[in-house]
Amino acid sequence: MEPFERLGGAGADRWPLHLVSNQPTARLHSQYDHGEVSQATKVAGREPVRIHPDTAAARGIRSGDVVRVFNDRGACLAGAVLDDAVMPEVVQLSTGSWYDPDESGVCRAGNPNVCTRDIGTSQLAQGPSAHTCLVDIERLEGAAPRVQSYDLPEFADRADL
User: Fold this and answer.
1) Least crowded by CB within 10 Å, which of 18, 32, 139, 158?
2) CA 92, CA 21: separation in Å to the nearest integer?
3) Domain count across the chain
4) Residue 47 DSSP label
């Protein structure tokens, strides 16, 4: 079957990068994203996105920068890691960071699910087709917003109930 989105296919003229959103190595899916092992892999408090140095240079991105990964479906912020093991025109951003939308829906923590297609692979299987899509990426200008997904919830004072 022809991939829904791919470089060289429909939409690649508008969205020039292929996003691969694999399973993370520092946690199981999203479990313990708040934990010490997962947090040790974060860049600027966000999920790392691996970018080929040539792809990054063309966009003025340096390692450690906060970047915006986006397409028509949505956007997320991630921490740039330059890696020549990633092919040019491909970016890799693991799944599983806790969804942390700002007031406009941009995920501050780096969850790539906001960019991927939310549709099953077929009527029979209904497996996720989420691990690949086309995007663009740009360096975030200005101060990056604080990730809030790990904040403890506010509780009502029992005396006020």
Assistant:
1) 158
2) 6
3) 1
4) -
